[in-house]
Protein backbone atom coordinates (compact mmCIF):
# COMPACT_ATOMS: atom_id res chain seq x y z
CA UNK A 1 0.00 0.00 0.00
CA UNK A 2 1.31 3.41 -0.96
CA UNK A 3 1.57 6.11 1.71
CA UNK A 4 1.21 9.36 -0.23
CA UNK A 5 2.15 12.64 1.43
CA UNK A 6 1.08 16.24 0.75
CA UNK A 7 4.09 17.08 -1.41
CA UNK A 8 3.46 14.07 -3.65
CA UNK A 9 -0.21 15.04 -4.02
CA UNK A 10 0.71 18.60 -5.04
CA UNK A 11 3.42 17.51 -7.47
CA UNK A 12 1.32 14.77 -9.06
CA UNK A 13 -2.06 16.47 -9.42
CA UNK A 14 -1.44 19.21 -11.98
CA UNK A 15 -4.66 21.11 -12.58
CA UNK A 16 -5.17 20.48 -16.32
CA UNK A 17 -5.02 16.71 -15.70
CA UNK A 18 -7.12 16.85 -12.54
CA UNK A 19 -9.81 19.03 -14.13
CA UNK A 20 -10.07 16.57 -17.02
CA UNK A 21 -10.25 13.65 -14.56
CA UNK A 22 -13.17 15.33 -12.77
CA UNK A 23 -14.88 16.04 -16.08
CA UNK A 24 -14.62 12.35 -16.96
CA UNK A 25 -15.83 11.29 -13.50
CA UNK A 26 -18.96 13.48 -13.68
CA UNK A 27 -19.77 11.81 -17.00
CA UNK A 28 -19.14 8.33 -15.59
CA UNK A 29 -20.82 5.84 -13.29
CA UNK A 30 -19.40 6.40 -9.82
CA UNK A 31 -21.60 5.51 -6.85
CA UNK A 32 -21.71 8.09 -4.07
CA UNK A 33 -23.82 7.37 -0.98
CA UNK A 34 -24.89 10.26 1.20
CA UNK A 35 -21.95 11.40 3.28
CA UNK A 36 -21.94 11.33 7.05
CA UNK A 37 -21.91 14.85 8.50
CA UNK A 38 -21.47 15.21 12.25
CA UNK A 39 -21.16 18.52 14.11
CA UNK A 40 -19.02 18.37 17.25
CA UNK A 41 -19.23 20.87 20.09
CA UNK A 42 -15.99 22.49 21.26
CA UNK A 43 -15.24 23.77 24.77
CA UNK A 44 -14.85 27.39 25.77
CA UNK A 45 -17.40 28.87 23.39
CA UNK A 46 -15.41 27.93 20.28
CA UNK A 47 -17.25 27.32 17.01
CA UNK A 48 -18.30 23.74 16.34
CA UNK A 49 -16.05 21.40 14.42
CA UNK A 50 -17.37 18.98 11.80
CA UNK A 51 -16.53 15.35 11.07
CA UNK A 52 -17.16 14.18 7.50
CA UNK A 53 -17.04 10.59 6.19
CA UNK A 54 -17.27 10.54 2.40
CA UNK A 55 -17.40 7.16 0.59
CA UNK A 56 -17.49 6.52 -3.16
CA UNK A 57 -16.77 3.63 -5.50
CA UNK A 58 -16.44 2.78 -9.16
CA UNK A 59 -17.59 -0.81 -9.65
CA UNK A 60 -14.69 -3.21 -10.15
CA UNK A 61 -12.11 -0.42 -10.20
CA UNK A 62 -11.75 1.47 -6.93
CA UNK A 63 -13.35 2.14 -3.56
CA UNK A 64 -12.45 5.13 -1.42
CA UNK A 65 -13.45 6.93 1.73
CA UNK A 66 -12.31 10.30 3.04
CA UNK A 67 -12.22 11.02 6.76
CA UNK A 68 -12.05 14.76 7.36
CA UNK A 69 -12.44 17.22 10.20
CA UNK A 70 -13.24 20.90 9.64
CA UNK A 71 -12.24 23.11 12.58
CA UNK A 72 -13.07 26.81 12.02
CA UNK A 73 -10.91 27.93 14.97
CA UNK A 74 -7.72 26.42 13.52
CA UNK A 75 -6.71 29.71 11.90
CA UNK A 76 -5.96 31.07 15.38
CA UNK A 77 -3.48 28.22 15.80
CA UNK A 78 -1.91 28.74 12.34
CA UNK A 79 -3.40 25.45 11.19
CA UNK A 80 -5.61 24.76 8.14
CA UNK A 81 -9.30 24.33 8.96
CA UNK A 82 -9.40 21.03 7.04
CA UNK A 83 -7.50 17.97 8.27
CA UNK A 84 -7.88 14.36 7.19
CA UNK A 85 -6.86 11.21 5.36
CA UNK A 86 -8.11 9.37 2.28
CA UNK A 87 -8.10 5.57 2.05
CA UNK A 88 -8.19 4.02 -1.44
CA UNK A 89 -8.98 0.31 -1.99
CA UNK A 90 -8.85 -1.96 -5.01
CA UNK A 91 -12.41 -2.18 -6.31
CA UNK A 92 -12.28 -5.89 -7.09
CA UNK A 93 -10.40 -7.40 -4.13
CA UNK A 94 -10.93 -4.72 -1.49
CA UNK A 95 -7.18 -4.60 -0.84
CA UNK A 96 -5.98 -1.24 0.50
CA UNK A 97 -4.14 0.53 -2.29
CA UNK A 98 -3.14 3.90 -0.86
CA UNK A 99 -3.31 6.09 2.22
CA UNK A 100 -3.33 9.70 1.02
CA UNK A 101 -2.94 12.97 2.91
CA UNK A 102 -6.44 14.41 2.45
CA UNK A 103 -5.96 18.08 3.35
CA UNK A 104 -4.00 18.68 0.16
CA UNK A 105 -6.10 16.23 -1.88
CA UNK A 106 -9.23 18.14 -0.81
CA UNK A 107 -7.73 21.54 -1.65
CA UNK A 108 -6.63 20.37 -5.11
CA UNK A 109 -9.89 18.66 -6.05
CA UNK A 110 -12.01 21.51 -4.65
CA UNK A 111 -10.13 24.07 -6.72
CA UNK A 112 -10.32 21.80 -9.77
CA UNK A 113 -14.10 21.49 -9.40
CA UNK A 114 -14.44 25.29 -9.34
CA UNK A 115 -12.25 25.56 -12.42
CA UNK A 116 -14.27 22.85 -14.15
CA UNK A 117 -17.43 24.88 -13.46
CA UNK A 118 -15.71 28.06 -14.66
CA UNK A 119 -14.83 26.35 -17.95
CA UNK A 120 -18.59 26.26 -18.63
CA UNK A 121 -19.69 29.40 -16.78
CA UNK A 122 -16.99 32.09 -16.95
CA UNK A 123 -16.51 34.17 -20.07
CA UNK A 124 -13.79 32.75 -22.30
CA UNK A 125 -11.81 36.00 -22.19
CA UNK A 126 -11.86 36.33 -18.37
CA UNK A 127 -8.56 37.91 -17.32
CA UNK A 128 -9.02 39.40 -13.84
CA UNK A 129 -9.62 37.16 -10.82
CA UNK A 130 -10.54 38.47 -7.39
CA UNK A 131 -9.71 35.99 -4.65
CA UNK A 132 -11.69 36.47 -1.43
CA UNK A 133 -9.90 34.62 1.34
CA UNK A 134 -6.25 33.85 2.07
CA UNK A 135 -6.35 30.28 3.42
CA UNK A 136 -5.05 27.01 2.00
CA UNK A 137 -7.62 26.97 -0.77
CA UNK A 138 -6.78 30.43 -2.11
CA UNK A 139 -3.52 29.67 -4.01
CA UNK A 140 -5.04 26.45 -5.34
CA UNK A 141 -8.11 28.29 -6.65
CA UNK A 142 -5.94 30.91 -8.32
CA UNK A 143 -3.82 28.24 -10.02
CA UNK A 144 -6.86 26.19 -11.04
CA UNK A 145 -8.78 29.11 -12.59
CA UNK A 146 -5.62 30.03 -14.44
CA UNK A 147 -5.68 26.56 -16.01
CA UNK A 148 -9.03 27.21 -17.75
CA UNK A 149 -9.09 30.98 -18.35
CA UNK A 150 -6.40 33.51 -19.45
CA UNK A 151 -6.00 35.07 -16.00
CA UNK A 152 -3.24 37.67 -15.92
CA UNK A 153 -4.23 39.77 -12.88
CA UNK A 154 -5.25 38.66 -9.39
CA UNK A 155 -6.71 40.90 -6.67
CA UNK A 156 -6.64 39.39 -3.19
CA UNK A 157 -8.87 40.43 -0.30
CA UNK A 158 -8.74 38.97 3.20
CA UNK A 159 -9.78 39.99 6.68
CA UNK A 160 -6.06 40.13 7.47
CA UNK A 161 -4.52 42.52 4.95
CA UNK A 162 -0.99 41.33 5.74
CA UNK A 163 -1.91 37.74 4.81
CA UNK A 164 -3.38 39.06 1.56
CA UNK A 165 -0.12 40.88 0.85
CA UNK A 166 1.95 37.75 1.52
CA UNK A 167 -0.24 35.70 -0.82
CA UNK A 168 -0.02 38.44 -3.47
CA UNK A 169 3.77 38.22 -3.31
CA UNK A 170 3.62 34.45 -3.77
CA UNK A 171 1.27 34.77 -6.74
CA UNK A 172 3.47 37.46 -8.30
CA UNK A 173 6.44 35.11 -7.99
CA UNK A 174 4.48 32.54 -10.05
CA UNK A 175 4.33 34.96 -12.99
CA UNK A 176 1.01 36.74 -12.52
CA UNK A 177 0.31 40.34 -11.64
CA UNK A 178 -1.16 40.29 -8.12
CA UNK A 179 -2.00 42.82 -5.45
CA UNK A 180 -3.74 42.90 -2.09
CA UNK A 181 -6.78 45.10 -1.57
CA UNK A 182 -8.55 46.36 1.53
CA UNK A 183 -11.58 47.46 -0.51
CA UNK A 184 -13.74 44.40 -1.16
CA UNK A 185 -16.38 46.26 -3.16
CA UNK A 186 -13.80 47.69 -5.55
CA UNK A 187 -12.10 44.30 -5.87
CA UNK A 188 -15.40 42.63 -6.75
CA UNK A 189 -16.42 45.27 -9.27
CA UNK A 190 -13.05 45.01 -11.06
CA UNK A 191 -13.10 41.24 -11.60
CA UNK A 192 -14.20 38.88 -14.33
CA UNK A 193 -14.22 35.98 -11.86
CA UNK A 194 -14.76 36.31 -8.10
CA UNK A 195 -13.72 33.23 -6.13
CA UNK A 196 -14.60 33.03 -2.42
CA UNK A 197 -13.12 30.57 0.06
CA UNK A 198 -13.94 31.78 3.56
CA UNK A 199 -15.61 30.62 6.75
CA UNK A 200 -17.97 33.59 6.74
CA UNK A 201 -21.33 33.40 8.48
CA UNK A 202 -22.60 36.71 7.10
CA UNK A 203 -22.57 37.51 3.34
CA UNK A 204 -19.41 39.20 2.11
CA UNK A 205 -20.39 39.64 -1.54
CA UNK A 206 -23.21 42.11 -2.18
CA UNK A 207 -25.32 41.51 -5.25
CA UNK A 208 -25.44 45.25 -5.95
CA UNK A 209 -21.67 45.12 -6.62
CA UNK A 210 -21.89 42.50 -9.36
CA UNK A 211 -21.28 43.55 -12.96
CA UNK A 212 -22.73 42.06 -16.18
CA UNK A 213 -20.73 39.09 -17.40
CA UNK A 214 -19.10 38.20 -14.09
CA UNK A 215 -18.76 34.69 -12.69
CA UNK A 216 -19.12 34.19 -8.92
CA UNK A 217 -17.47 31.06 -7.49
CA UNK A 218 -18.53 30.28 -3.89
CA UNK A 219 -16.42 27.58 -2.23
CA UNK A 220 -16.48 28.35 1.51
CA UNK A 221 -19.48 28.62 3.86
CA UNK A 222 -19.83 24.84 4.01
CA UNK A 223 -22.69 24.75 6.56
CA UNK A 224 -26.38 25.70 6.17
CA UNK A 225 -25.96 28.66 8.54
CA UNK A 226 -22.97 30.14 6.68
CA UNK A 227 -22.90 32.16 3.48
CA UNK A 228 -20.61 34.29 1.33
CA UNK A 229 -23.11 36.09 -0.97
CA UNK A 230 -26.39 37.84 -0.26
CA UNK A 231 -29.90 37.31 -1.64
CA UNK A 232 -29.50 40.03 -4.26
CA UNK A 233 -26.56 38.15 -5.74
CA UNK A 234 -28.81 35.11 -6.12
CA UNK A 235 -31.62 37.16 -7.66
CA UNK A 236 -29.34 38.76 -10.25
CA UNK A 237 -27.61 35.55 -11.29
CA UNK A 238 -28.04 32.30 -13.16
CA UNK A 239 -27.51 29.72 -10.40
CA UNK A 240 -25.45 26.53 -10.74
CA UNK A 241 -24.14 24.03 -8.16
CA UNK A 242 -21.68 21.17 -7.99
CA UNK A 243 -24.41 18.69 -7.00
CA UNK A 244 -28.08 19.38 -6.36
CA UNK A 245 -28.33 16.89 -3.48
CA UNK A 246 -25.42 18.43 -1.59
CA UNK A 247 -25.89 22.12 -2.32
CA UNK A 248 -29.59 22.19 -1.44
CA UNK A 249 -28.90 20.74 2.01
CA UNK A 250 -25.43 21.79 3.10
CA UNK A 251 -24.32 25.22 1.88
CA UNK A 252 -26.03 28.34 3.18
CA UNK A 253 -25.51 30.16 -0.13
CA UNK A 254 -28.21 27.86 -1.54
CA UNK A 255 -30.03 26.63 1.59
CA UNK A 256 -30.86 30.10 2.96
CA UNK A 257 -32.21 31.56 -0.32
CA UNK A 258 -34.31 28.40 -0.73
CA UNK A 259 -35.67 28.78 2.79
CA UNK A 260 -36.39 32.49 2.25
CA UNK A 261 -38.18 31.86 -1.05
CA UNK A 262 -35.61 33.94 -2.94
CA UNK A 263 -34.62 30.82 -4.89
CA UNK A 264 -36.73 27.84 -6.00
CA UNK A 265 -35.15 24.43 -6.58
CA UNK A 266 -36.14 24.66 -10.24
CA UNK A 267 -34.19 27.93 -10.31
CA UNK A 268 -30.96 25.95 -10.01
CA UNK A 269 -30.24 25.60 -13.71
CA UNK A 270 -27.70 22.78 -13.63
CA UNK A 271 -25.08 20.95 -11.63
CA UNK A 272 -21.73 19.57 -12.73
CA UNK A 273 -23.35 16.31 -13.86
CA UNK A 274 -25.60 18.28 -16.23
CA UNK A 275 -22.78 20.50 -17.49
CA UNK A 276 -20.25 17.72 -18.07
CA UNK A 277 -22.82 15.49 -19.78
CA UNK A 278 -23.95 18.25 -22.12
CA UNK A 279 -27.43 18.47 -20.62
CA UNK A 280 -26.93 22.21 -20.08
CA UNK A 281 -24.58 24.40 -22.08
CA UNK A 282 -23.65 26.72 -19.19
CA UNK A 283 -23.23 30.44 -19.81
CA UNK A 284 -25.69 31.74 -22.42
CA UNK A 285 -24.25 35.19 -23.22
CA UNK A 286 -21.55 37.67 -22.23
CA UNK A 287 -23.91 39.79 -20.09
CA UNK A 288 -25.13 36.94 -17.86
CA UNK A 289 -23.96 36.83 -14.23
CA UNK A 290 -23.26 33.23 -13.24
CA UNK A 291 -23.33 31.98 -9.64
CA UNK A 292 -21.71 28.64 -8.74
CA UNK A 293 -21.91 27.06 -5.29
CA UNK A 294 -19.64 24.15 -4.40
CA UNK A 295 -20.02 22.03 -1.26
CA UNK A 296 -17.76 19.16 -2.33
CA UNK A 297 -18.53 15.65 -3.51
CA UNK A 298 -16.95 12.27 -2.83
CA UNK A 299 -16.82 11.59 -6.58
CA UNK A 300 -14.18 14.35 -6.82
CA UNK A 301 -12.08 12.78 -4.08
CA UNK A 302 -12.19 9.35 -5.69
CA UNK A 303 -11.20 10.70 -9.10
CA UNK A 304 -8.30 12.65 -7.59
CA UNK A 305 -7.16 9.71 -5.45
CA UNK A 306 -7.21 7.34 -8.42
CA UNK A 307 -5.18 9.77 -10.50
CA UNK A 308 -2.46 10.31 -7.89
CA UNK A 309 -2.30 6.58 -7.05
CA UNK A 310 -1.98 5.53 -10.71
CA UNK A 311 0.65 8.13 -11.50
CA UNK A 312 2.86 7.28 -8.54
CA UNK A 313 2.61 3.55 -9.26
CA UNK A 314 3.95 4.11 -12.77
CA UNK A 315 6.94 6.21 -11.69
Automatic annotation (TrEMBL):
Matches recorded under Pfam families: OCD_Mu_crystall
Regions annotated as coiled coil: none
Protein name: Ornithine cyclodeaminase family protein
InterPro entries per the UniProt record, alphabetical: NAD(P)-bd_dom_sf (IPR036291), ODC_Mu_crystall (IPR003462), ODC_N (IPR023401)
Superkingdom field: Bacteria
Family matches, as PANTHER family: KETIMINE REDUCTASE MU-CRYSTALLIN
Amino acid sequence: MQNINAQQVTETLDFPSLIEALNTAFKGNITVPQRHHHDMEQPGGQRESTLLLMPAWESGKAVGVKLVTVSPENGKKNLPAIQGIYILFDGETGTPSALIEAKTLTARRTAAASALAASYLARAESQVLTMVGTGVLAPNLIEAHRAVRPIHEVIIWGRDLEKARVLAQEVTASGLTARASDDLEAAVRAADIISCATLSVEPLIKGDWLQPGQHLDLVGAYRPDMREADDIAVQRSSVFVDTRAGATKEGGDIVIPLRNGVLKEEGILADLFDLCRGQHSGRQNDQEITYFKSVGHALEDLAAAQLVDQRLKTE
